[in-house]
């Protein structure tokens, strides 16, 4: 699914109006009806509704919602906020329609002092500002937003299109913005919805279809996308009937140190459960028995060091020839000892195929930044936010961090996967994908190690790096969603994600 800018969304509306054809009033009716149907499904008619309507088209949506609620017997009041002396034509038309049918339902607010007293348990609908907002809300309207936020503890707040005060395409981190429990948006995601800084503003997001013209949606290019099941089914490669283990590649996993062999085990198990043909694990001596017992399907080679790895390169007689591996994953539980850092440098010089780099391997690179330029093009780096900051520096907000992520992916010709609620995957071609699967139960130790194993397995099977990173992130999150449904977010562990990789593949 594409993510459109505010400008593109307005263009999609205009294109639909021109080519369906449909009037702007009819399109507004369609959007408001989608919201009203959602409200009917979630709330009974015994709760009062207060719809705060601005003077633009977002307010027009609110006026139509008020009328539709009344049509169903709901008690609804349109609180029209006169922040401007001029209303949009569609707003004016819908106010007139509401006045004709339900004149008692309109309450005009000209100043903050006019703010109504709401009975307990009211449903507050925010329809003040939509995607047309381009700067911070100021003056008494900022005070009104704060007043609505004061209601959140005692009432349910629902934003229409996006929470008022929130900019669709830029940071609103220090601006007055409505904090909604739910946001009912239309047709496509906005970039603002994907940013951690807006989590408390957006609340639970619901994307409602309103029938924007499919030609515009298909033909209009965008840098930003959200992954979905349809996209993954076009990427997924089913097993072939005459395949053998060599068909699906030999992967090398370099992981583990004293006290962190569990990270290597989790990554190995995830790799084995993601379709790799053969897996060799390179671990320090202290991990040999643990790995052989925990993952018997994997071959195991040990480093001469007891507690960490320091020799994984072809110049040592006890290490395998790197050319036999179709993919290498490195980093889970690896440690950052100086000999390990030197060995990583040698590995990057000798292995020139795309690899998966995670965890302590990223921390080593952050400590020795010259290694960034030695990473093979097409490799996948999987930092969490702190690791990303160590690698590339801090930014003032999430939008700036996203741009930095994309810039670095282009400059270094790498795939950068920034972990989070909507994991962001920046590609060397400038495109950015947000992963749609996953849940807070995956915020548990070892979850990232599992992801490394999945990605390494997909690369080894011959998936192109872009396909591997998109599919791997989606499967990782989907397995986490299945695990959460089976045992709760609180009870699930990284091993639960591995256990649910099979059902995740079956969904594809």
UniProtKB/TrEMBL annotation:
InterPro entries: Carbohydrate_kinase_pred_CS (IPR017953), CARKD (IPR000631), Nnr (IPR030677), Ribokinase-like (IPR029056), YjeF_N_dom (IPR004443), YjeF_N_dom_sf (IPR036652). Its cofactor is K(+); Mg(2+). Residues 228-508 form the YjeF C-terminal domain. Residues 9-218 form the YjeF N-terminal domain. CDD domains: YXKO-related. K(+) binds at residues 58, 126, 164. Pfam families: Carb_kinase (PF01256), YjeF_N (PF03853). It catalyses: (6R)-NADHX = (6S)-NADHX; (6R)-NADPHX = (6S)-NADPHX; (6S)-NADHX + ADP = AMP + phosphate + NADH + H(+); (6S)-NADPHX + ADP = AMP + phosphate + NADPH + H(+). AMP binds at residues 419-423, 448. (6S)-NADPHX binds at residues 57-61, 130-136, 161, 263, 333, 384, 449. PROSITE patterns: YJEF_C_2, YJEF_C_3, YJEF_N. GO terms for biological process: metabolite repair; nicotinamide nucleotide metabolic process. Binds 1 potassium ion per subunit. Keywords: ATP-binding, Isomerase, Lyase, Metal-binding, Multifunctional enzyme, NAD, NADP, Nucleotide-binding, Potassium. NCBIfam families: yjeF_cterm, yjeF_nterm. In the C-terminal section; belongs to the NnrD/CARKD family. Homotetramer. Bifunctional enzyme that catalyzes the epimerization of the S- and R-forms of NAD(P)HX and the dehydration of the S-form of NAD(P)HX at the expense of ADP, which is converted to AMP. This allows the repair of both epimers of NAD(P)HX, a damaged form of NAD(P)H that is a result of enzymatic or heat-dependent hydration. This is Bifunctional NAD(P)H-hydrate repair enzyme. The lineage of its organism: Bacteria, Pseudomonadati, Bacteroidota, Chitinophagia, Chitinophagales.
């Amino acid at each position: 699914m594409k993510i459109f800018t505010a400008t593109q969304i307005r263009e999609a509306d205009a294109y639909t109006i021109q080519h369906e054809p449909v009037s702007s009033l009819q399109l507004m009716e369609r959007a408001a009806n989608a919201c009203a149907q959602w409200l009917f499904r979630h709330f009974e008619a015994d709760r009062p509704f207060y719809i705060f309507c601005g003077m633009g088209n977002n307010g027009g949506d609110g006026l139509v919602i008020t009328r539709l609620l009344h049509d169903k017997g709901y008690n609804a009041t349109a609180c029209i906020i006169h922040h401007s002396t001029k209303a949009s034509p569609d707003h004016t038309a819908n106010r007139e329609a509401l006045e004709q049918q339900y004149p008692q339902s309109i309450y005009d607010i000209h100043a903050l002092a006019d703010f109504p007293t709401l009975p307990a348990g009211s449903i507050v609908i925010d329809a003040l500002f939509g995607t047309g907002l381009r700067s911070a809300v100021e003056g008494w309207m900022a005070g009104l937003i704060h007043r609505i936020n004061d209601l959140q503890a005692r009432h349910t707040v629902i934003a229409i299109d996006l929470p008022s005060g929130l900019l669709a395409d830029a940071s609103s981190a220090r601006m007055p913005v409505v904090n909604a429990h739910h946001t009912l948006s239309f047709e496509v995601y906005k970039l603002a919805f994907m940013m951690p800084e807006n989590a408390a503003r957006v609340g639970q997001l619901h994307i409602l279809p309103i029938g924007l013209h499919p030609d515009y949606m298909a033909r209009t290019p965008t840098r930003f996308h959200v992954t979905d099941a349809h996209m993954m089914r076009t990427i997924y490669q089913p097993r072939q009937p005459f395949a053998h283990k060599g068909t699906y590649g030999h992967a090398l996993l370099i992981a583990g140190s004293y006290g962190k062999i569990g990270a290597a085990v989790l990554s190995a198990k995830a790799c084995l459960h993601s379709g790799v043909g053969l897996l060799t694990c390179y671990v320090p001596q202290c991990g040999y028995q643990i790995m052989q017992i925990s993952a018997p399907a994997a071959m195991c080679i040990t480093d001469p060091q007891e507690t960490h790895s320091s020799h994984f390169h072809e110049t040592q007689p006890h290490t395998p020839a790197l050319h036999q591996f179709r993919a290498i994953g490195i980093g889970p539980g690896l440690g950052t000892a100086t000999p390990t850092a030197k060995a990583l440098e040698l590995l990057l010089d000798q292995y020139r195929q795309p690899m998966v780099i995670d965890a302590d391997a990223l921390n080593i690179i952050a400590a020795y930044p010259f290694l960034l330029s030695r990473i093979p093009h097409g490799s996948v780096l999987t930092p969490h936010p702190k690791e990303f900051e160590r690698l590339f520096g801090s930014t003032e907000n999430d939008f700036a961090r996203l741009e930095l992520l994309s810039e670095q992916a282009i400059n270094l010709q790498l795939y950068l996967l920034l972990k989070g609620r909507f994991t962001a995957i920046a590609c060397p071609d400038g495109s950015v994908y947000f992963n749609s699967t996953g849940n807070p139960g995956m915020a548990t130790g070892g979850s990232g190690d599992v992801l490394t194993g999945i990605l390494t397995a997909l690369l080894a099977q011959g998936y192109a790096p872009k396909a591997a990173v998109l599919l791997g992130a989606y499967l990782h999150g989907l397995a986490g969603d299945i695990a959460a449904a089976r045992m709760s977010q609180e009870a699930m562990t990284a091993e639960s994600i591995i256990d649910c990789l099979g059902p995740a593949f079956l969904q594809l």
